[in-house]
Amino acid sequence: MDWFRLILTSEEVAAGAVEPYREAFSAAFTAARGPRTMALFARELDDGGVELLISPESAEHAAPLLEEWGALPCERPALLGLELLVGHTEMTYYMI
Predict the structure, then answer these.
(1) pTM strictly above 0.90
(2) Which of 24, 38, 66, 68 is the most buried (most CB within 10 A)?
């Protein structure tokens, strides 16, 4: 199953763009009753941008949101440098 990714530029990050994504995903997470493996992660990029990474189960519960964002399928990310923005902390155990 694919993960999804969205890249925010350093300018978007400086303008506060991460928070609206977190809030929208949090609303979808709550509406789906908090599935164990539905999660949104962030990883800072060297250029000041941020990579948002969305777990595969999220597609089941937040497909319109992922489409609206233009999130693209990607491989499962490495844990190094990931910050959990929305989801259960145990999600990282499923990624090992």
Answers:
(1) yes
(2) 38
- Inter-residue contact 66 to 58 (CB < 8 Å): yes
- Residue 13 makes CB contacts below 8 A (sequence gap 6+) with 48, 49, 50
Q: What string of pLDDT tens digits covers the 96 residues of the chain? A: 799 999 999 999 999 999 999 999 999 999 999 999 999 999 999 999 999 999 999 999 999 999 999 999 999 999 889 999 999 988 777 665
Q: Are strands 50-54 and 83-86 parallel, antiparallel or unpaired?
A: unpaired
Measured in whole angstroms, how far is the alpha carbon of residue 75 from the centre of its chain?
Answer: 13
Question: Which residue type occupies 2?
Answer: D
Domains identified in the chain, total number:
1
What is the Cα 42 distance to its own chain's centre? 6
- For residue 76, list its beta bridge partners: none
